[in-house]
Amino acid sequence: MEEARLKSPSVARNREAILDVLRPLLPQQGVALEIASGSGEHAAFFAENLPNLIFCPSDPDAAARRSIAAWGLSLGLANLRAPLALDTREDDWPLHAADAILCINMIHISPWSATEGLFKGAARILPSNAPLYLYGPYRRQGVETAPSNIEFETWLKTKDPAFGLRDLEAVADCALRNGFWDPAVIEMPANNLSVIFRRA
């Protein structure tokens, strides 16, 4: 199973900073659904460091799910569930209730419809005041976009024209239309943001 484990260099760089934000944000107990878990390294790291929470990773990609499962097996964490096949654009998600949702580095590497689906689905399964945590690079009105983010966006669009940095205001407006409050925004290393929504 070790060959199935994917590794992302960015995870090692950002996981500690993200964990520092998540510690006071996430509930003491319950289920945290991670959307677009990718390699599964974040889910494994958070499960290891927040043992009272059950982490439920997910990804629409089969290779990613194999990697997530391999990381889970290698660590033997009782609070890390098997990965779900979940595409935010689907109306029926395989998990129908969660106490928190995490979504790291998805919004800019997916079509806008995935973001719309994220908020629609999160509104269905989260209780009132539960957090929806987003992490990644954004454009913001009145804030100059870092040159490294502009270069990154150019590269993303060579992969798919539907990808790219999203305007934070557009994301917040989408959240508002789906029953979330205005976000709290935390500056993170490498020109990224933690964006925290709560279900109204």
UniProtKB/TrEMBL annotation:
It holds the Pfam family DUF938. This is DUF938 domain-containing protein. The lineage of its organism: Bacteria, Pseudomonadati, Pseudomonadota, Alphaproteobacteria, Hyphomicrobiales.
